Amino acid sequence: MPRPLTTTNQADSIVNQSIIQYGGDLYDNSIIRFTFRNRRYKARRRGGSFEYERVFSDSLGQTVRDVFNNGGLYREINGNRLKISEKDSSAYASSVNSVVYFALLPAPLNDHAVIREYLGETTIKGQPYHKIRITFRQDGGGKDFEDEYVYWFHRDEGTMAYLAYNYLTDGGGARFREAFNIRDVNGIRFADYINYKPKDANNRDVRTFDQLFEAGQLEELSRIETEAVEVIIIQ
């Protein structure tokens, strides 16, 4: 049975220990590159600063480069800066940030806008997990600050094995992800995910999705796989 709700400090400790296990300080001392769905990404984080890049070819064969950093987002086509609307800038930034966010987990769970709440222990597939709810402060939480996440960290191994999220953009919905293919690349651990949705689309209480998973009430929707991962350590 899950234990009663305890302090935020416990949630902080569990998240921080997992980040250390997955790479710790290397996240802020490296350049990370990977391919996701035929688009090439690059991520650089250092303290509170970041720069994420996405490069791909559009339908006309032009090279599109999106760069998202603390100053906002800009887009280049064939090396020329493009003038884009605030709406498009926000949409491109959200798209880039979302892909990098999931690829770098659990590191983003230590960002200053994150609010961590310990929900107790639970069991999935016979294994013990700490269950932690993540929400965001409006200041620094981005346009999706109202989204809600739940993460399951293995009690003994510290691995982040499952996550669920309830999102409000584009009509909203809820998803549950199961990590697989966890591997180490130059000191940082990465995972791919099986992406599930609830059979009852109206059920968006992500705090119960571990129970739905155990009961077979989730169905596979897609696979989230990062390819050609590179980690360049910066001295």
In a nutshell, what does this entry contain?
The chain is of the alpha+beta class and 235 residues long.
Distance between the termini: 46 Å
What is the number of helical segments per DSSP (H or I, 4+ residues)?
3
Strand proportion: over 45%
Major sheet: order of its strands?
A: 6-5-4-3-2-1-14
**Care to count the β-strands?**
14
Shape field = globular
Instruction: List the secondary-structure elements in sequence, H or E.
Output: HEEEEEEHEEEEEEHEE
Which consecutive residue ranges, at least 5 long each, have pLDDT under 50?
1-6
Structural class: alpha+beta
Average pLDDT, rounded to a whole number, is 92
* Main sheet properties: 7 strands, antiparallel
Global Rg? 18 Å
Share in helix: 10-25%
Task: Write the topology of this structure.
Elements (H helix, E strand, L loop, with lengths): L7 H15 L7 E7 L2 E8 L2 E9 L5 E7 L2 E6 L2 E3 L3 H19 L9 E11 L2 E10 L11 E7 L5 E8 L5 E13 L2 E11 L10 H6 L3 E7 L2 E7 L2
Antiparallel strand pairs: 1-2, 1-14, 2-3, 3-4, 4-5, 5-6, 7-8, 8-9, 9-10, 10-11, 11-12, 12-13
Structure report:
The chain has a seven-stranded antiparallel β-sheet, covered by helices on one side. Strands 7-8-9-10-11-12-13 form a seven-stranded antiparallel β-sheet. It has helices spanning 8-22, 86-104, 209-214, and strands at residues 30-36, 39-46, 49-57, 63-69, 72-77, 80-82, 114-124, 127-136, 148-154, 160-167, 173-185, 188-198, 218-224, 227-233. The model is unreliable at 1-6 (pLDDT under 50). It is built from three helices and 14 strands. The longest helix has 19 residues, at 86-104. A hairpin with a 2-residue loop joins strand 7 (114-124) and strand 8. It has 235 residues and is an alpha+beta fold.
